[in-house]
């Protein structure tokens, strides 16, 4: 069988296109172009684990910038102002060292003299403590007197209750009990005075 001229022209056109320099170049670019790979689940998980390990170790990723992510302008400003800030910090540190040395000297002088800075500062408290001791002694004395007065008042109340039972008795009954009306009235008055204390 003889190929038909239409078919042979179609085949020859496709072959000619395949051999054309533009088509060859396009095929070469496709062969050399980087292929995009898809990560598997295991590879993605391993990548996440490596990121966590890096964070725990305190290591930065290669894509992160050093010096805390400052921009170029910020880094330039920090470099320019760094020496000035350092001199200020040095001056403050020297002043703090002088103050510390003066305080140490003051403490040593006070210790050599027998008085310490702490004793000097708490001296006013000793006066307050002495006053508190006096107030405490006075309060305890008043509490003891109050307790004694309550005991006397309770005894007087008991005597009054006992004497009140004899208020309605006749003179003869009081005489037989070994007392008189006058003595009964005096005892009652004494008990009332004791109850008032």
Helices and strands in order, then pairings?
Layout: H1 5-19, H2 21-32, H3 41-57, H4 72-113, H5 117-164, H6 171-176, H7 181-196
Helix pairs in contact: 5-7
Outline the structure in words.
- The chain has helices spanning 5-19, 21-32, 41-57, 72-113, 117-164, 171-176, 181-196.
- It is an all-alpha fold.
- Helix 5 (117-164) packs antiparallel against helix 7.
- The longest helix has 48 residues, at 117-164.
Structural class: mainly alpha
Query: What is the distance, rounded to the nearest whole angstrom, between the alpha carbons of the first and last residues?
Result: 151 Å
Helix content: over 70%
- Indicate the low-confidence ranges by residue numbers: none
Mean pLDDT: 77
State Rg: 56 Å
How big a fraction of the residues is strand? Answer: under 5%
Query: Overall 3D geometry?
Result: elongated
Number of strands: 0
Count up the helices.
Answer: 7
**N-to-C series of helices and strands:** HHHHHHH
Query: Major sheet: size, sense and barrel closure?
Result: none
């Amino acid at each position: 069988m003889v190929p038909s001229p239409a078919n042979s022209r179609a085949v020859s056109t496709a072959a000619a296109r395949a051999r054309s320099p533009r088509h060859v170049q396009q095929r070469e670019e496709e062969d050399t172009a980087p292929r995009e790979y898809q990560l598997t689940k295991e590879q993605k998980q391993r990548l996440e684990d490596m990121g966590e390990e890096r964070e725990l170790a305190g290591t930065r990723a290669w894509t992160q910038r050093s010096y805390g992510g400052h921009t170029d302008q910020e880094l330039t400003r920090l470099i320019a102002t760094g020496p000035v800030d350092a001199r200020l910090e040095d001056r403050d540190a020297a002043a703090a060292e002088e103050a510390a040395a003066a305080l140490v000297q003051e403490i040593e002088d006070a210790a050599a003299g027998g008085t310490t800075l702490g004793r000097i500062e708490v001296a006013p408290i000793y006066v307050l403590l002495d006053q508190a001791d006096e107030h405490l002694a006075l309060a305890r004395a008043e509490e003891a007197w109050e307790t004694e007065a309550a005991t006397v008042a309770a005894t007087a109340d008991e005597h009054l209750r006992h004497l009140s039972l004899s208020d309605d008795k006749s003179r003869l009954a009081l005489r037989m009990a070994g007392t008189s009306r006058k003595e009964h009235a005096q005892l009652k008055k004494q008990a009332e005075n004791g109850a008032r204390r």
